[in-house]
Each structure stands twice: as structure tokens, then as C-alpha cells.
Amino acid sequence: MKVPGVTLIATNHGEGAEKFMINPELWQACAGPLVNLPAAGTHVVYFPQGHSEQVSASMKKGMDAQIPSYPNLQSKLLCILHNVTLHADPETDEVYAQLTLQPVTAFDKEALLRSDLSMKSYKPQTEFFCKTLTASDTSTHGGFSVPRRAAEKIFPPLDFSMQPPAQELVARDLHDSVWTFRHIFRGQPKRHLLTTGWSLFVSGKRLSAGDSVLFIRDEKQQLLLGIRRATRQPTNLSSSVLSSDSMHIGVLAAAAHAAANNSPFTVFYNPRASPSEFVIPLAKYYKAACSNQLSLGMRFRMMFETEESGTRRYMGTITGINDLDGVRWKNSQWRNIQVGWDESTAGERRNRVSIWEIEPVTAPFFICPTPFYGLNRQRYPGIPDGESADLDNFFKRTMPWVGEDMSMKDTGLSLVQWMNMQQSSIQSNHLNPLAAPVLQNYGGPDMSRILPHDSLQFNSLRSTAQLDQLKNQLVPSTVNPLA
Amino acid sequence: MKVPGVTLIATNHGEGAEKFMINPELWQACAGPLVNLPAAGTHVVYFPQGHSEQVSASMKKGMDAQIPSYPNLQSKLLCILHNVTLHADPETDEVYAQLTLQPVTAFDKEALLRSDLSMKSYKPQTEFFCKTLTASDTSTHGGFSVPRRAAEKIFPPLDFSMQPPAQELVARDLHDSVWTFRHIFRGQPKRHLLTTGWSLFVSGKRLSAGDSVLFIRDEKQQLLLGIRRATRQPTNLSSSVLSSDSMHIGVLAAAAHAAANNSPFTVFYNPRASPSEFVIPLAKYYKAACSNQLSLGMRFRMMFETEESGTRRYMGTITGINDLDGVRWKNSQWRNIQVGWDESTAGERRNRVSIWEIEPVTAPFFICPTPFYGLNRQRYPGIPDGESADLDNFFKRTMPWVGEDMSMKDTGLSLVQWMNMQQSSIQSNHLNPLAAPVLQNYGGPDMSRILPHDSLQFNSLRSTAQLDQLKNQLVPSTVNPLA
DNA sequence: ATGTCGGCGCCCCGCCGACAA
DNA sequence: TTGTCGGCGGGGCGCCGACAT
Q: Which of B282, B355, B359, B249 is nearest to B315 (CA)?
């Protein structure tokens, strides 16, 4: 597994903080399989509304009516992600990431490609196990019962000539603290157990039944371990530092100030506290905004994390499309999709999601940007500038930074005009020379959705050979069943 | 002891928070003898700069250069303190207060009086003891050694007919949790000890040597206990919720928004984390701004908290008067006094203080507002409006809300004009009928400093008898040795 | 007056297999 | 395969006065 492109800088953020690099694989394992940090150096879309929701979730307190609205702050900001550092709370081991964002007013095709490519380097960790602790595991009466497969896959093999087979395990946590355990294979029937040292770990981390512990092996075969706490009700009710209002205002004001000056700003993303990611890779957002022509009643699938840190998809139906907060955040697309779930046990699943979180189960038509263009014409048409009015409106509605602002007046460049304007500078840049080799090794299917647009406007930028290669790679998963 | 005028509302701030009222005496005891919360309903002066410093101190991180300056936010805001609620962090027992402030543009004489009177109801708690824990106290090897005087003063008397004399003590903490201890008088020589139950308390509160524990008795003779942690280096390095920048911006933006709309806002005051109080009773600020004609080389005294929760004064000399941050906060008076301390062990004492924190040791001349007026004429002169230009400038510099803004232009009402304008409404109010009896019992010397101004402008508001009575009370400490 | 320590009793932590789910 | 429990041995928690400061 790899957290792609994370700039691993031992920051001084909070003196006394980590003086070493947090292991990215361990961080990812603690964060969960669905968390996918954007890569440093790529473009992202930042949603202040989602950031605000994280604050509310962290404070266990909703937003009050006192928060002023920031009319100059758009509901989404196109940013460059300058820097990503991984952190873990020294008290609770809660993982979080510090992201340095800088608003920008435009992106080019290369940025889109880089964003897309950076998303693909994720591959699930296999040298990994995670167990939710039982009452026996956490009681002072005994040790930890290791699931057999986990022990055989992760731990160094035991010497079964010993009676009983046993060894000393040494594992490091997120803070590079060392924990040692006696690993023994005994009992009738035989089982793997962690005994001596385990209770120190439980009390040191203040674990209770329901919390999870996980082990991974790094590239040097060293054992690492982390924890994931059960989602308890009473986490931190308040920081006692800043009022909830001031925190919300701080989020908005910081973003507004950065947007006004195109200056960098910093956000913390807390994967286990936040209901949803609020810094979205540009390509992910772009594809969703571009290809998902959503409508009421549409069926979709969505990934969820299972217990034991697996993933599975649930199916649902779109029951509504409307603003979560039509007053402060009009047309924000932040969790603007109301959904119902197929399985009745879905009571705890969210009833609002954002467009980039779902996969429509209808075939991936390229009905982008509007159904005005026939399906067949969508594959590789050249659209004259004059016919792109609907496209312009679509993008001005969803990506206001492309034009001047979100106002109704039709000033501002159209997406097509803007793209054409970018041609000259892009052509002098060519493609990033590193991009082509990567593209050749690139086998993911998702990129298909941006290609129509891509080739639509930038045919001149890519050799026919490259294009064909990509097409060949992509065809198996991009067959349009209706074509 | 009394925390004056605190509105004791069981707020829902942070659901799951205190469902009961925090005992104000216990809160005060944990906060320390120097902490003096302004009373709800009175006027205060709020210093965003000081608030920002508390954020820095809580985050253990200075302010970055990224914070935008808020040119429309004055360095001090006159506010009404609507509400004060006391809190304690459920994890650490750290005490803090939530203050609801509302900016206002003017105050009248009654507000000044009420502010002053509310400061006087403080009387130090006597049914109180505080001990810094030794290594023996916190080790698992034994119990807690109770200082003899403390045990005799605070704990219920032992039955010395028993051998050994012993009893069960029950004490409640800030969260109303009950702790029971065996109190025994034994050993050779005899001493008071807490044995059974003590180690549970130490581990439950995670106390170490150097932390303090304190006991008080409430009005119903019930035993209460609290803790004060030693000022360790690594407290909470970061909230993992909001970036330091966003927190600072949040503080400033919330204050700016409230000031622009005269709308309420909320701040948290954390007495043990903050280097200085940043919400100052109006009367306290007024007296300091009015009477302390400070100059380089001037000698002063200042209160400090001792170990064991006592107070003592240290003497020092003013070595500079200048802005702490001349760019963002010009003429803010927030810690604008540079000082040196007499005792060489004063290394850890602050080298910058605010005007209301110090007591000049020169006689309290009434050389307010400027030396332009002769000393003798300062006692009870009537100053015609036309001669008050310097006074106006002084107050416009230090209390900009009195005029229109801090700009150099001479628009805006002068203090004198404004005071005169207030006369009609004040006269219809008369004095608060509760104020006069309190004034008669009032023996403190500090109020003298505001009286010249007071009587200067508001002679018509107070009977000669009352004035004389006050004068008699005040004369002993207001003798001008040069007169 | 009170901080620390040696002595030592006993509680409960924690290792074991039995047993069942 | 693994969660829970009775059994039980020993380490350390915690109560005591001695002694020093």
C-alpha cells in the first residue's frame, strides 16, 4: 500500500510533535481502507462546507446560527495541494493529516492528468490484520487471542520444535514507541496468544472492548501496530480553547482570506472524525461532475468500510437532489444527493452523499455535459465553440472558478474559451515527460470518463500512438453496452 | 469566597457536558487566587490580542505570519458581559469559563459603578488548603501525607478516643464525582494520612509529583476537592481539529463580525493556560488608563501567585512603554509595558505587562489625563469643555470606542461631549438604588482613582453627603505627598 | 512537621488449560 | 476457531512504623 505522493516532512507543527516520519502505511491502515489522501503537488477541490462539518463532528456540536455567511467564499475552491503531512494525536493515537492548500483560478489538462494518475497508486495492504477487541482481550484476566490466519500471515513463524512454541514480538506504534509481547502457541485446542506485555499495551493505550488493534509489516519486515477506537459517543465535547462558533468562523475566514489573496492555508483532515472527505482530487471531482448525469430514482453503488477493515458496496437509490444548505451554500454539490439504501439494516448509513462518492450502476454513458448531445456523438466529436453554450452553463454552475464568479451574469470565460486560451502555454509545456511512461503502465478503468473531454479539446497534445495505446488499455472497461 | 455574579446555567455547550452546576468556589480555588472573573451583566474590555495569545499558549505554538490583519477590528472592544458559565475539562479537570460578550459603543456612569462594585465582592477563601504532591504522595507505595493544619482546619474532627483515630472522608470533584478516602491519624510521630482510596484518585486523575491537590468545604460543610496540574511542557500540542492559523483567524473574525454587528459572541477563558486575562472589568481598565501616568523608570508592584496558592507582590521598574505588536495592534495597551524585576530569581516572570496589572508605588496622583493640568488643580477641578482637548485626545487614543474610530481626524464625539450627552438619560436613571448601601460599606482604596473624573463630570448625580463619606474613606490612601 | 524507606500481608494481575459456542 | 472461565502462583499494591530532615 502506498499513500501517494505524501511529502514526508517532519514538521514542527506543535513543538514536541513527531520528530520522525510517521509510517505512511501504518497511518493508512489506521485511517481505514476508504481514506485516500490526494497527492502533494496535485490539484484538489476543497469544500469549506465539508470542513465545517468536520469541525461540528469533532466538537460533537452542530453549527449555530451565529456564524456569518461569507458571500465572497465560494462553496468549492480549486486548490493546489502543496504539502501533506501525516500526524497522530500523542494522547489518543487518532490519525489526521495536515494539508497545505493554495487556491488557484485555473487548471490545465496536465493538472487533470496528474491528479488522476496520483489516485491510482493505491493498492490495498495485504500484510495486515485488524481485530476488534473482545471483553477477554481487554480484561486484566488474560492476554490477547490472535486470529490464527493473522498470526500466520503477519507474525514471524514460530519454532514449533519448542514446547510450547513461543517468541518475543517487538512492534512499533505511530509514535515509534516500542511494545514487546510474548507470542505463544498453546492451549487445548492450540491457539496463538499474546501474553506478557499485552496488558501494558491495553492500559497504555486505554483500550476497551470494541476498539480495534491492527498489525502490519513494513518493507523491512518490521512489525508495526496501531489502534482504531470504537466510535464512542463522548469523545471530546469541546476544546476548551475556542468556541464552536469561532472554529467555524475560523474555517470560513481562513478559506475566504486565502481565496481572496490566492495565498496558502492549512487544514486538518481527520479521517475517523469526518463524515466525508472534503478535499477531493480534482480528477475525482471532475469525473463525477462530468459523467454522472444523476436523476431521481437512479440506482447506484457506494463503498463502505466493514468491521475488520474490509470494504463492501451497498446499493441504493437516489431519492432527491437538492442543496444541504440552500442559504449558505447554494449549488455546492456537497452531499446534495439524498439516497435510500436497499438493505433494511442500513439505518446507520448516511442519507446524503456527494456526487463523487457514488458509482451509478447504469452504464457509464458519456452523456456529458448534457443530454443535448447525442450519445454517439459524444465519443470523439469536435464541438465548435458556438455550440458549447450548454456546456458552459453546466460548468459555470458546478465549477464557478472557471468563470469569474457564481453570479448569473454571463461575463467570464467559458470553459471552452478558457481551454483554448490555455493551449499556447500548454503546448510550450508539452506533457510532463514523466507522464508518458506512467501512462503506459496505467491500467485503471476510471480514467476513461475524462478522456472524451480530454481528447475533445486537446487532441493536438497527444500523439495518435499514445492515444491508441490508452484506448486499447481502456476499452475493456469502457465498452458502452448501448453503442 | 465568591465568584461574583456568575450566571450559573447548566449549558448544553458540548452535549454530555456538565448536567449540574460547577461549584463556583471550587472552580475559583482551582483557577487560583489571582483569577477574577468579571460579573455577568457588567461592562468589560475585551482584547483580541490577548485572546489570540491564549490560543497560542494553548496550542504551544506562536502565531504565524499568515494571519491577516483585521484593520476594522479595534485592539480593544467595549462589551457587555451577558453570561458567564464555568466549566472543567472532563479529561484533565482543567478549568475554564465561557463568556458571552456583546460589543457596545458606549457606557454610562452607572455601568462604571456596577463594574467597580462587582469587583469588590471577592474575598479570599479561608476554608481551603492546597498541597503540591510529593513523590511519596503519588507513588503506589503509600498514601497521602496531609499537612496538619490543613487536616485540622478542613476535615471533620477525628474521634481521638479511637485507636488509632480514623474516619471515612467523602469529597466531590468538579464533575460531582465522589471520591472516598480513609483518613487516619497514626505513625510515630503522629500524622494525618489519607490511605485507602487515595491511589484510585491519583491514577484516576493521572497525577504526578508536582501536581497539586486542594480541598475546600462548601457552605453545607461538604468536602470538595480539585487539582491543579504542574505547568508541564507538553500539554496539548495541537487540537488536530483546526490549524493554529484558522484558530487565530477564528478569534479575530468572530470578534470583528460581532463588533461590526454589535452581536454577541463567545470566548473561552482558560485561566491556567492564558498568560494574562484578556477580558477586563471596565472599572479596572478605566482606573488604570485614567490614573496611572506611567513613565520610564517608574517603580511598581504586581501580584503573583505563590506555590501553595498564596499571593505575594514583587517589585519592578518600568523599562519601556511600547506596542507589543505595532503592526497589527497599534496602541493596544495589551502588555505594552516592558518591565524589569527587583529579585534576580525573577527569570520566569513576564517581562511585559498591561497597565491594569501593576500598581505604581508612587502616590496615586490624579495627574489624569495629562500633566498639562497642574497637580493641585487635579483634585476637584471643573474643566470647561473648551479646555478638554488634551483629555479628549488621551481618551480617543486609549478608548477609541468613545469617538468614532482610531483615525487621526478629529471627528467623533469627545469623551466630555459624550458624557454630557449621557447626562439626561443617566439622570432619569439615578443611581442604582442598590448601589448606595454597598458604597457605604465599601472600604477599598482603589475606587478613588476614578472619583476625580466621576465627580468631575457627574457632581450633580451624587449627594454631597455621599461624596464626603466616600472622600473620608478614601483620604487615607489618597494623600498626595506633594500637595 | 513530614518525606522516604524497609517490612510484609494480601489482593489481584496474569498465565494456564477446560469447555463451549 | 476462539471467547470465557476456574484455578492458582507470584509480583506489587498499599498499610505500618522507623528514621531522618
A: B359
Q: From the list B66, B238, B257, which residue is nearest A249 (CB)?
A: B257
Q: Is the dihedral of CA B355, B357, B358, B359 positive or negative?
A: positive
Q: Is A396 exposed, middle or buried (0-12, 13-18, 19+ CB in 10 A)?
A: buried
B13 touches A: beta carbon within 8 Å:
yes
Q: How far apart are the first and last CA of chain B?
A: 38
Residue A217 and residue A224: Cα distance in Å, rounded?
6
Best of B58, B239, B261 to disrupt the A interface by mutation (most A CBs within 10 Å)?
Answer: B239
A142 CB and strand C closer than 7 A: yes
CA pair distance B69, B252, nearest whole angstrom = 9
Q: Measured between CB atoms, does A340 come within 8 Å of chain B?
A: no
Is residue A61 helix, strand or coil?
coil
Whose cell is 469549506? That residue is A48
Cβ within 8 Å, pair A60-B237: no
As beta bridge partners, residue B428 has none
Strand (E) or helix (H) holding A469: helix A464-478
Q: For the residues of A404-458, what is the DSSP string, one character each?
A: S-SSSS--S--HHHHHHHHHHHHHHH-S-TTHHHHHHT---SGGGGGHHHHHHHH
Residues contacting A182, CB < 8 A, separation 6+: A166, A167, A168, A169, A194, A195, A196, A197
Q: Do residues B217 and B164 lie in contact, with contact meaning Cβ atoms separated by under 8 Å?
A: no
Interchain pair B14, A59: CB under 8 A:
yes
**Which nucleotide is the nearest neighbour of B133, by CA and C1'?**
C3
The one-digit pLDDT tens for each residue of chain B (483 residues) are 445 444 444 344 443 455 679 999 999 999 998 899 999 999 999 999 999 999 988 887 766 666 777 878 899 999 999 999 999 999 899 999 999 999 999 898 899 999 998 887 666 677 899 999 999 999 999 999 999 999 999 999 999 999 899 999 999 999 999 999 999 999 999 999 999 999 999 999 999 999 999 999 988 889 999 999 998 765 555 677 899 889 999 999 999 999 999 999 999 999 988 878 999 999 999 988 877 678 898 899 998 888 777 888 889 899 999 888 877 888 888 999 999 988 867 567 788 999 999 988 865 444 444 332 222 323 333 333 333 444 444 444 455 444 333 322 222 333 333 333 333 333 333 333 323 232 222 233 333 333 333 332 332 223 333 333 323 322 233 322 222
> Three-state SS for A187?
coil
Of A13, A249, A264, the CB nearest to B254: A249
Whether A71 contacts chain B with CB within 8 A: no
Contact B81, B39 (CB under 8 A): yes
- Whether a cis peptide bond, with omega within 30° of 0, leads into B400 is no
- Which residues 6+ apart lie within 8 Å of B233 measured at CB? A16
In whole angstroms, what is the distance from residue A84 CA to residue A81 CA? 8
Q: Determine contact, residues A358/A302, Cβ cutoff 8 Å.
A: yes
If we measure between CA atoms, which residue out of A130, A170, A179, A117 comes closest to residue A28? A130
Helices (H), A176-276: 198-205, 244-261
